[in-house]
Amino acid sequence: MYLADHTWPALQAELDAASTAIVPLGSTEQHGPHLPLATDHLIAEALATAAADETGIPRTPTVDIGVSPHHRQFPGTLWVDPPAFRQYVESVTRNLAYHGIDRVVYVNAHGGNVSHLREVGRRLHEDGTIYAVEWMWDESIPELVDELFEHNGPHAGPKETAMISHIAPELVDETAVSEARDGGLVDLEESDAVVHGARTYYDAIDNSANGAFGDPTDATAEKGERLFEAATEQLVHLLEWLEAREPEALRPEPRVE
Amino acid sequence: MYLADHTWPALQAELDAASTAIVPLGSTEQHGPHLPLATDHLIAEALATAAADETGIPRTPTVDIGVSPHHRQFPGTLWVDPPAFRQYVESVTRNLAYHGIDRVVYVNAHGGNVSHLREVGRRLHEDGTIYAVEWMWDESIPELVDELFEHNGPHAGPKETAMISHIAPELVDETAVSEARDGGLVDLEESDAVVHGARTYYDAIDNSANGAFGDPTDATAEKGERLFEAATEQLVHLLEWLEAREPEALRPEPRVE
Amino acid sequence: MYLADHTWPALQAELDAASTAIVPLGSTEQHGPHLPLATDHLIAEALATAAADETGIPRTPTVDIGVSPHHRQFPGTLWVDPPAFRQYVESVTRNLAYHGIDRVVYVNAHGGNVSHLREVGRRLHEDGTIYAVEWMWDESIPELVDELFEHNGPHAGPKETAMISHIAPELVDETAVSEARDGGLVDLEESDAVVHGARTYYDAIDNSANGAFGDPTDATAEKGERLFEAATEQLVHLLEWLEAREPEALRPEPRVE
Amino acid sequence: MYLADHTWPALQAELDAASTAIVPLGSTEQHGPHLPLATDHLIAEALATAAADETGIPRTPTVDIGVSPHHRQFPGTLWVDPPAFRQYVESVTRNLAYHGIDRVVYVNAHGGNVSHLREVGRRLHEDGTIYAVEWMWDESIPELVDELFEHNGPHAGPKETAMISHIAPELVDETAVSEARDGGLVDLEESDAVVHGARTYYDAIDNSANGAFGDPTDATAEKGERLFEAATEQLVHLLEWLEAREPEALRPEPRVE
Amino acid sequence: MYLADHTWPALQAELDAASTAIVPLGSTEQHGPHLPLATDHLIAEALATAAADETGIPRTPTVDIGVSPHHRQFPGTLWVDPPAFRQYVESVTRNLAYHGIDRVVYVNAHGGNVSHLREVGRRLHEDGTIYAVEWMWDESIPELVDELFEHNGPHAGPKETAMISHIAPELVDETAVSEARDGGLVDLEESDAVVHGARTYYDAIDNSANGAFGDPTDATAEKGERLFEAATEQLVHLLEWLEAREPEALRPEPRVE
Amino acid sequence: MYLADHTWPALQAELDAASTAIVPLGSTEQHGPHLPLATDHLIAEALATAAADETGIPRTPTVDIGVSPHHRQFPGTLWVDPPAFRQYVESVTRNLAYHGIDRVVYVNAHGGNVSHLREVGRRLHEDGTIYAVEWMWDESIPELVDELFEHNGPHAGPKETAMISHIAPELVDETAVSEARDGGLVDLEESDAVVHGARTYYDAIDNSANGAFGDPTDATAEKGERLFEAATEQLVHLLEWLEAREPEALRPEPRVE
C-alpha cells in the first residue's frame, strides 16, 4: 500500500490497523559508465513496492538522495551531509509514530546510508519513539549473490546491473558494460584500498577510475529477476517477523540490576 | 533532462553546458477527502519534468516530503521539521554548485515550503554559492486561476483538484468532491482565521474539518490542462530569463559606499 | 504594565493574575533617506506600550534587532541570523511560561520577522508550552491604510512615515521625504521584483536604490495618529479576545481518530 | 552617537569615519524588593549613551535580556539560554564588521553575561572578524566602589541601588530598601555559598531569600552620580585607548615558530 | 614520543620535524564478567605508545570514552553521544593541523567508534584540513587472530582477553573467564542477531546476557604478546607508509572533468 | 575506586551503594618552559585518585584535553572548542545518572574549564538529571597557597610547579625554572592585561612571552606535598558533605509563589 496515493480518509482505516511501515531509501550517485544515477533509489523503491503490495503494509515515498559524498567527483552525483540526512530521516520516522506506527523497516539500497540509519534508529529506539531496523537487500541473500556472480563489486557491479536490467532495462547503457569492467576495479583485493589494516581512501575514485567495481558483464535481466524475487521474499519475511513481535519486545532492555 | 536517469558520462557533457538546474519540491500531506497525499509533489514533478523536457535543463529528483506539520492531524500526513528541511535542501543545492551549476529554480507546489526555500536561497546567495529562486506554479498565473474558479481555496481546492485530474486522474476520488466542499471551508473569509489582524490558527484543522478549502466541484481535467500548460509556459520563460542573465547579475549587491 | 520597570514583589501579584503577555519586536534597519533605523522597533514598542497601559497586561522589553539581512547594504543596518533570532525569541517566550503565562502576542512591526515568529510560535504550541500569535499592526487595519495613502510601499513608505511623524517626529528628516519618493520605488508593480511568478530579488536594494518604497510625501502626523489609534484599538481587541479564550481552546487539536 | 536614531545616509559618513562601536548589554531580572528588573540594562544603556555622546562613537541598541537563569525563581525574571545569547550577540557583532567597524566594546552591566561575551569575543577574534572586549562598569572603578560602601553585594546591593537612584530614581522603591537588606544576604562570607572551595549553589535564591545582596541602605543618588561619572570616564578612556591601537595590534599573535 | 610529557620548547623542534601524529581512542564499557571497562582504551594506548616509541612520531593523550551506548545496560559503562564524540575528535584533530601536522592515524580499539571517526576524517579531508585514517588493531592482523583462537567474538572475547592478559594482567578476573564463555554468546551465528538480512538488535545485551562474545578461555598472555607485537608492527608500517606519501597524494581527487 | 579498572559485575555493587561520582578534568596545554603539557590533567587525576581511594567513591577516567585555545600559540597545546567540550562532559555526566548516581564533583585543574563546567552543571541541575559541582584545587586552599609562595601566577607558576614536582618530578625541567620566571610574567599587575576595567587580551602569549606566570623558583616538592595533602583533604570533606545531603536538597528551588 503506497501511502501517498491515497486520500486521508482512505488511509485512516489502514493506519489504524497497521503497526509497521516501510521507508525506502537510496541515493542519486554515479554507478559506473553503464548504470543510471537513480540505481539505488530505483532498487529500494521497487523492493519496497513489491513487499508493500504483498503484505498490505503502508510504504512512504522514497528518500532519493542519500549520503554519497564519496562519489561526488563523478558528474551529477548528489548527496546530503550526514547530519542533514539523519535529521531528515528522523523527522519522517517520528511522523509515523505520531500516526500510531511503532515499527519501521528502512528498505535501503545504498551502503553509505547504513551507519546513519543505525544512528537514527538507535536514537528513536532509546527514547521509546519507535523501533526501526535497517535492511539492505543484498545482505539478505548473500549466498545467491555469490552463486550468481564471480566478481561482486560492492558498487555498480553485476548485482546492481542485474537488478536494473530487471527493473528498468531502458536505463542500462548496454554498450558501456564491458567498459565498466575494463576501466573500473574488478577485484577489490587488487587495490591498495586497505593498507596495514587501515582504509586509506575516502572516495570511490581513489579505487576505480570510472566508478564501477566488480565485473558487470556477468549480469542479465534473468539473474536480476531471481535476485529481486529472492530479496522481496526475505523482506516480506522480515516484515512478518516484525509484525508478529510483542510491543514490549521492541523496547530497549532495562539496565542490569 | 532528468538527471537521475542518466549515467555519469552522459551527464558530464550536459552539466558542462548547463548553468541552471531545476529542483522540484512538494509535500506528502492530506488534501481533503478527495485528493491523494501526493498532490503537491506530483504537481511539482510534472511541471518540472515538462519544463526540463522543453528546455533541456537538468532536473533533480523531487523532494517529496516538505514542511507540513500544520496538516499532521489528518492520517498519513508526513512532514519534516523546518531546520531539517532547510539543511536537506541546502545540502542538495550545494551539490549542484560543485558540479558547476550557478543558478537553480525550486519548482515548488507547497505553500509551507516557501519561507524555508527563501531562507536557504538567501544563505546560498549571500555566501556566493549559487543563485536559487523559489517558484510556485499558481503564483505565476493568478489571473487564469481567478478566471477559472469561483472559490479558490489555498489548499485542496479547485486548482489542485483540476491539476490532479489532469496529471493523475486515477488518484482523484470523484465520489468525495462534493463532500470536500460541504465538509470543508469554502470561503476563507467566513472563517475566524484572522482575528484583528492576527492569524490565530496554526493548523489546517482549525479552519477546515476535512482539510479542504475552496469549492473543488468546479474543477475539471480540462481546466487542469489549461493550468498546467499556462504554468509550464511561465516556468519555461523564467528558466530562459534566468539563463540569459550575466553571472555577475546573480550576485548580491555590494554595500552602499 | 511594563514588566521591567517593576520590582519582583510588585510583579508577583500582576503575574499571578495574568494569563497573557505582550512581546514587542522590530528591527534596526535602513528606512530610506528620511526615517531612522529604529522605525520598526519604535512602532512596535509604542503600540505595545499603549495596549499594555490600556489593558494592564504585562509587556516585556522590546526585541530591537530582527531579521534584516535584506537591508544590510545600507549603512548601519543590523540584523540577526534567522536561527539565532528564533532561538532568542523562543528562549524569552519560554520564560513567560515559567512565570505562569499561557498566551502571548508578538507585537511585530517588521515583515522580515513574521515567518520566524510563526515558526517559533508553532514549536511552542505543538509542545504545549504556550500559545503565541504574531500580530502586525498594518495588517489589522488594511482598509484605513488604503484609504489614507495612494502608494503604500511595504517599507519606508507613507504608513511608516506617518507613524514615526506621530510617535517620534524629531527623528524624521523632513528634508529628505521627496527624495525618498524620487530615489526609491514608488510602485512595486513597476519593478521587475517578480518574474513569471518568482521573486527574483533577495535584497531591498535590488528594487529600490535608496531603500524606500511607496510615496511618503503623502504622510502626516495626523494620519499617523489615526493609524496609531486604530491599530491600538485592534490590538486591545485581540488581547481581550485572547484572554477570554478557555485554556483548552489554545491547545492543538488532537489527531483525527 | 546612537545609531538607531539616524537615517542611513546620516550614518554613512559616521560609519566611514568610525573604527569602534559600543554595544550595551544588560539583563531583565529581579533586583531585590527595591530595584526594578530593568536595573542592569538601564545602567548599561546610560553609561553607553554617555560615552557615545562624549566620544561620538556609534552605539547600537541595548540587548535588554541576558543570561539570567539563576534569578528565574523570582517573578518576572527573563533570560536567554547561553547558546542563544551567544549566537545573538555574535550575529549583531558580525553586522558591525560588515559596516567596516573593526573593534567593539561590550558595555555590560550583568555578571551573568561575562563569560559568554568572552566566548563570543574570542571566536570573532580568532577568525579575524573583529576585536571585541567586554567591559563591566564596577570592575573599572573598584577602589571607589569599596570606598563608598561597606557591604558591596554583587547583586542588587548598594552600588546598583545608587546607580538607579541617579539614573532612574522613580523606579527605586525606597520603602523596600531596608527590607532588601534584612531579608537578603548582607555578607557573602556569612553564606555557605562556597563549600571547601566549590561553589555549591546555582541560583541566587540559594543564598538570598529576597534576591538582594549587600546593604543597599548605604546608597544615595549622590553616590550614584559619583559612580556614574567615574565609570563613564573609565569607559571613555578605554574607547580612546582602543581607537588609538594599530589594526594589526588587534589581531591574534601568530604561533610561536 | 608522548606529547603531553614534554614542555612546549621541547615539542617545538619535534613538531617542526613531524608531519604525522597518532591519536589513540578507545572506550570505557563493559567487557564481560572478566575484563575491565578500560579494556579498549588500554589496548589503544599501549599500541599507540609502542608505535610512537618506535617511530618517534608524537602521540596525543588517549580519548578514553567513546561511542558505547550499546553497552549501557551493564553497570559502569560510559558513553558519549555520537555528535559530541565527533565534535570532540574533530576539535582535537584541528589542533594538530594548527601545529603543522598534515596526517593523523586514529589508533582505535573500539568498533563503535569506527563510523564516527570515518565521518570526522572525511569532513577534515574534504575541507583540506588534514588527512586522518582510522586504524583498528585486529583488522590489521586477521589471519593471526583466526589462527590463534577458535571462537573470536567481536567483543570481550579471546583476542581482547589475550591482549589485556599481556598489557595489564592484574586487571583480568581469571576466575570469571569460564563464566564469560558460559553466560555469554560463544558463536554469533547461533544468535538471532540478523533476521532476514536485518540487524534487529541495538544493544549488546540483546545477544549476550553477560556482555561477552566468543570463547575467552582460549586466551593467554603469550598469545596476547604475539597479537600485540604483530599489530604494533602493522601500525609502524602504516605510519611509515603514511609519512612517505607526498602531501598532494593526501588531498581529495578533483572532480572528473 | 577507579571505575575503569573493574569488571561490570564488580561495579554493580559499588554503584548500587553509591550516590556520588568524581570526574577529573584538566588540559593538555603549554605550562611554560619547565612544566609538561600534561600538568593540569596530571594534577586533577592525582587528586581525584587520592580522594577516590580515601572515600571509596567511584571516579571516572580523566578528561585530558580541555578548553585551552588561549594557549594555542605555544607548540603542542591541544584544545576543544567550548561547545564540543560542554557536550562531551554533559554526555558523560548523563551516563552517571543512568547508573543511579545523583551527584558529581568535577575535580578540575584548569581555569579555562570553569565556566563551561558551570554551564553544563546548571543545565543538568535545571532539568533534574544530576547535581554536579565544579571544584578547583587551589581555590579550596587559598591561604596555604598565599603562605607558601610570593608570586602566585595563575598559570605555570609556583603552585603548579610544586604540585608536579611532587606528583611527577621526572617531568619538570629543572634547568628551565629560572628561565620560566625571567622570560615570563612574574606579576600580573605589571602587565597591561586589564585596561580601564576591561580584559583586553585573549591569549596567554599577550601577557607572557614564554607562557609562564608568577615565580616558580620558589617551588619545591615538599611544598607540593603540602598543597596536595591539603587539597585532598578539602576534596574529601566536600565529597562527605555532598554525600550527606538529602536528595531533595540537591534540586532547584521552586519559583517563589
Report on this model:
The structure is a homohexamer. With about 260 residues, the first copy, chain A, is mostly helical. Chain A has one domain: Creatininase (Rossmann fold, 3-Layer(aba) Sandwich). Helices cover about 40% and strands about 10% of the residues of chain A. The first copy, chain A, has helices spanning about 10-15, 40-55, 80-100, 115-125, 140-150, 160-165, 175-185, 220-245; strands at about 20-25, 105-110, 130-135, 195, 200. The longest helix of chain A has 23 residues, at about 220-245. Chain A is globular. The model of chain A has no long low-confidence stretch (mean pLDDT about 95). Chains A and B meet through helix 1 and helix 3 of A and helix 1 and helix 3 of B. Chains A, B, C, D, E, F: Its cofactor is Zn(2+).
Topology:
Six copies of one chain form a homohexamer.
Chain A: H1 8-17, E1 20-25, H2 39-55, H3 82-98, E2 103-108, H4 114-126, E3 131-136, H5 142-148, H6 158-167, H7 177-183, E4 194-195, E5 198-199, H8 221-243
Parallel strand pairs in A: 1-2, 2-3
Antiparallel strand pairs in A: 4-5
Helix pairs in contact in A: 2-6, 2-8, 3-4, 6-8
What's the shape of chain A? Answer: globular
Question: Structural class of the helices, strands and pairings of chain A?
Answer: mainly alpha
Mean pLDDT of chain A: 96
Radius of gyration of chain A: 19 Å
How are the strands of the largest sheet of chain A arranged? 1-2-3
Tally of strands of chain A: 5
CATH architecture of chain A: 3-Layer(aba) Sandwich
Beginning-to-end CA distance, first to last residue of chain A:
43 Å
Q: State the helix count of chain A.
A: 8
CATH fold-level label of chain A: Rossmann fold
CATH classification, class level of chain A: Alpha Beta
Oligomer: homohexamer
Number of domains of chain A: 1
CATH superfamily of chain A: Creatininase
Sheet with most strands of chain A: 3 strands, parallel
**Beta-strand residue percentage of chain A:** 5-15%
Elements of chain A, N to C (H/E): HEHHEHEHHHEEH
**Unreliable runs of chain A:** none
Largest interface: chains, residues each:
A-B, 53 and 54 residues
Proportion of helical residues of chain A? 40-55%
Protein name (chains A, B, C, D, E, F): Creatininase family protein
Keywords (chains A, B, C, D, E, F): Hydrolase, Metal-binding, Zinc
Organism (chains A, B, C, D, E, F): Halorubrum tibetense
Cofactor (chains A, B, C, D, E, F): Zn(2+)
